[in-house]
Request: fold
Amino acid sequence: MDAKLMECVPNFSEGRDLEKIDRIVAPFRGKPKVKLLDYQRDEDHNRLVVTVIGEPDALKICLLDAVAQAISLIDMRAHRGQHPRMGAVDVVPFVPIRNMSMAEAVDFSKQVGKELADRFSLPVFLYEASAANPARSNLADIRKGEFEKMPEKLTMDAWKPDFGPVAVHPTAGVTAVGARNPLVAFNVFLTTQDIAIARKIAKAVRHKDGGLRFCKAMGVAVEARRQVQVSMNMTDFSQTPLYRVLELIRAEAKRFGVTVSGSEIVGLVPMAALTNCAAYYLGLEHFSLAQVMETHLI
Amino acid sequence: MDAKLMECVPNFSEGRDLEKIDRIVAPFRGKPKVKLLDYQRDEDHNRLVVTVIGEPDALKICLLDAVAQAISLIDMRAHRGQHPRMGAVDVVPFVPIRNMSMAEAVDFSKQVGKELADRFSLPVFLYEASAANPARSNLADIRKGEFEKMPEKLTMDAWKPDFGPVAVHPTAGVTAVGARNPLVAFNVFLTTQDIAIARKIAKAVRHKDGGLRFCKAMGVAVEARRQVQVSMNMTDFSQTPLYRVLELIRAEAKRFGVTVSGSEIVGLVPMAALTNCAAYYLGLEHFSLAQVMETHLI
Reply:
């Protein structure tokens, strides 16, 4: 009952070849103390996102096997896709889920990063909570230049990898490994087709431009619905809850004569991200997660 | 992963003697495939409510042991308390939690009812979803007259027990057993001390008087807060969700110039009762419980 549990969401640079995808995902199937929750491939992005949960050591064994597959199957020199990427195993985020602190998850991510570097001669950057300094905490900064510019980037002192050779793996590029909070992909739809409005509201609510601390946001057109959306990554829902950003979007939308027509959560969401919204809107006093029956069944 | 799971919430007529309470609760502790989630005794009610969850057959073994203890320790002839009661083991509700239909829970409750009757010479009534006819579905109807009037009640054709002797157990009285939906105890506080307002609103929202189908409600004074509350049992949150009754109370309160100041959930609540409120207030489209990470960990 009190085993440590983490989530791991490795991103691989293969979203088209189903046979290759199957071989990369296979190591996560039917293993003790590991559960494959989801995997989604995107053809346009040419990218595979695996969501798996389990005890840390068991997760590591599966992950190393999957990485071995990915490195043997993916040649980044021939990789084309819309999503920015720098390696065959582009990024390996770890999320502490249960009986595990962020500090423990950081330690674990460093172990895994070192092992990936040693075993596969892969340059590894530590990012997010595992980053050695703030310049490396944001994955976008590490990935800037993508696979094609990495050979040049790695020669700079500021971009010496945390583990592994100071040279790009010829076919597998570079990998980022790190511990982070669970991330919730939360999109809010607006009753307009005007992308400028979605962009202005996204700017108002996101951290970068003066908004909520754990909110990344952009305006996106949703043509099939003839609407726009504020598309967000909530990077710490315990400090920036979903209801807060929704109510802020509602308030900002008013000045444009626009309203919120609905929302969606893409992929998985931790229970607490929703129960804290329920507690807010119901006005629940003294609510505790221990009151949720399922908490006792995990 | 796919074992059947039920909750059982037996109510015993002993809320004062800690040693007796310990002996009644003990059979639920440290057993395989059973988890004691909670037990609460109430001195005024002189009553003990145990909340336990587990696989049906394992639950039954613990329950039979606890019933044996209760029957040997409780003498209803000497029992006094504010809560209506008819037996030492007053009521044994079973709630299907996972991989189990209500029909299966009903079957199981009948097995348990028969075993309790045979083993302890206890008259047993089946209630709620297990009731043989509508006149027996409501526990309050079965319990009417309480322990003291049961000998007379059992002589009536309409109140022949479903199992066991047609005679009250001399010290343990009568027991009700049945399967039901999970029940959420939900209280809404109002910004007034006027109990008449809470009573009027309770009447407006409860099923009995024309309100929401799966809502039982009464007005209660909460003297320590100088407020009143609408105190509710939501008997099927999937059909009558918490947000709906809250919004209805808010609307009814307006005519009295009163507002909702907050709410509380007493005891345990199934995750889905809260996530469906989050989905309503956030306006989530296409939300599914399978998106909640914890769903995959149970």
Remarks:
- The first strand of chain A starts at residue 5 and ends at 8.
- The two ends of chain A are 7 Å apart (CA to CA).
